[in-house]
Design goal:
Layout: E1 11-13, H1 14-22, H2 27-38, E2 45-47, E3 50-54, H3 55-68
Antiparallel strand pairs: 1-3, 2-3
């Protein structure tokens, strides 16, 4: 399972983003990620047919989840 403790690149590809957000990279999770991008829940950029999520966006999602967690 992916961890936010290791340094992340400036742009995170969709497969790595799925691992970080959902715990696994599979077709279902990719569509979930693309849906979040299309609903503008998270920011994403497309380069050459591949989607990338900015590191600051992933960090803010992680911080948002951590602050809402009851543990």
């Amino acid at each position: 399972v992916a961890s936010m403790t290791e340094p992340l690149p400036l742009l995170i590809d969709s497969s790595r983003a799925c691992e970080l957000l959902f715990g696994a990279d599979n077709r279902r999770n990719r569509y979930r990620l693309y849906g979040m991008i299309s609903r503008r829940e998270i920011k994403g950029r497309q380069f050459g047919g591949r989607w990338y999520i900015p590191r600051v966006e992933m960090e803010s999602l992680h911080d948002e989840y951590a602050s809402s967690s009851p543990f």
